[in-house]
Amino acid sequence: MQFLAVIISAVMFAFSAWMYSQTGDWVALVFMVGSGGYGLLFASGKVASGFGRDASDE
Q1: Is pLDDT above 80 for 50?
Q2: In a domain, 57, yes or no
Q3: What angle (nearest 5°) sits at the alpha carbon of residue 41, between those of residues 48 and 11?
Q4: What pTM value is reported for the model?
Q5: What average pLDDT does range 20-25 have in this prediction?
């Protein structure tokens, strides 16, 4: 599932970068940065591990 999330965020990043290069729209730039951030978050594995939480934290 982590691999799929990284792939989807990479596709979103690429599309946003292409859209920004075509239009120069700042919204596409924001989405590009956000997609890159999500990609890094998913790739780090922090989402899968629950940001370091375990069963004792609940």
Answers
A1: no
A2: no
A3: 105
A4: 0.74
A5: 95
